[in-house]
């Protein structure tokens, strides 16, 4: 048993405008309320597109929903002539608590490398946001380097060189499992999460490693979530496609019902 509260994070990617966001967040909140969801046993966060954040913040604030807000990315810079970029300072002003850093779609389509991910992690710490550092191997890397090499390397690179490590979360997302319907087995996910934690302990400290939540992500659904979260090594899930359906995402958040905790 650990005292890390599981985090159920829903990455909407580039889906839902601000009006559709209202409908989804309301439905999700009602579904969790109907099920008497206890947020102290599983935290729930949504990661809407930037243009939805103000609307979602206003709704959550007005209706006192316990759902947390995350952003999908942030700039490594604070402010200035960086057209199209979003500062961590702006996110903080919108009550954003979490920010995804280094999602595989950013690494793949926006050429983000470990240096960029490290700089964005630093920006998140600077603005008191909690980075969710996404790591994971492609199928080719799985075949050539084995299961944990790439996620461990990416984790250590993102956490290197910070004067003080703030709170952070790691999301292990095998690239071959994102949006494909293919999932890692619960045993594989737990083994990689455990190796990531061990590497953090060796490079930083036992305390830092014990405090970090390490999530699994990749085609998670209500029907398979319990398998992952049964392991004490896995502290939550990062969910893409299934987070766009309020009932499905609420079912994922209520995973404890399936594992009898
Ligand atoms: C993701 O976007 O981080 C993700 C895990 O997507 P999906 O659940 O759709 O595989």
Automatic annotation (TrEMBL):
| Pathway of action | Carbohydrate degradation; glycolysis; D-glyceraldehyde 3-phosphate from glycerone phosphate: step 1/1
Q: What is this protein called?
A: triose-phosphate isomerase
Cellular component (GO) terms are: cytosol
Q: Which UniProt keywords apply?
A: Cytoplasm, Gluconeogenesis, Glycolysis, Isomerase
| PANTHER family registered for this protein in UniProt | TRIOSEPHOSPHATE ISOMERASE
- GO biological process: any one? glycolytic process
The top EC class, named as a word, is isomerase
The record's annotation in Pfam families points to: TIM
EC number(s)?
5.3.1.1
According to the UniProt entry, its GO molecular function terms are: triose-phosphate isomerase activity
Check the record and name the NCBIfam families matching this protein.
Answer: tim
Q: Which organism is it from?
A: freshwater metagenome
């Amino acid at each position: 048993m650990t005292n890390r509260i599981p985090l159920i994070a829903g990455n909407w990617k580039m889906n839902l405008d601000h009006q559709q966001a209202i409908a989804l967040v309301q439905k999700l909140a009602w579904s969790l309320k109907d099920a008497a969801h206890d947020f102290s046993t599983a935290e729930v966060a949504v990661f809407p597109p930037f243009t939805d954040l103000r609307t979602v913040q206003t709704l959550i604030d007005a209706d006192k929903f316990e759902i947390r807000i995350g952003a999908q990315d942030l700039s490594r810079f604070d402010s200035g002539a960086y057209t199209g970029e979003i500062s961590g300072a702006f996110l903080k002003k919108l009550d954003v608590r979490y920010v995804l850093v280094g999602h595989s779609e950013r690494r793949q389509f926006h050429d983000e490398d470990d240096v960029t991910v490290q700089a964005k992690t630093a920006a998140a710490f600077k603005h008191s946001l909690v980075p969710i550092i996404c790591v994971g191997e492609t199928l080719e890397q799985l075949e050539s380097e084995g299961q944990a090499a790439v996620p461990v390397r990416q984790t250590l690179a993102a956490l290197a060189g910070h004067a003080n490590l703030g709170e952070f979360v790691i999301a292990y997302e095998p690239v071959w499992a994102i949006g494909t319907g293919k999932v890692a087995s619960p045993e594989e996910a737990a083994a990689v999460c455990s190796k990531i934690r061990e590497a953090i302990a060796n490079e930083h400290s036992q305390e830092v490693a014990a405090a970090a939540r390490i999530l699994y992500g990749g085609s998670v659904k209500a029907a398979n979530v319990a398998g992952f979260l049964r392991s004490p090594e896995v502290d939550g899930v990062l969910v893409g496609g299934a987070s766009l359906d309020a009932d499905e995402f609420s079912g994922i958040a209520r995973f404890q019902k399936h594992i009898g905790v």
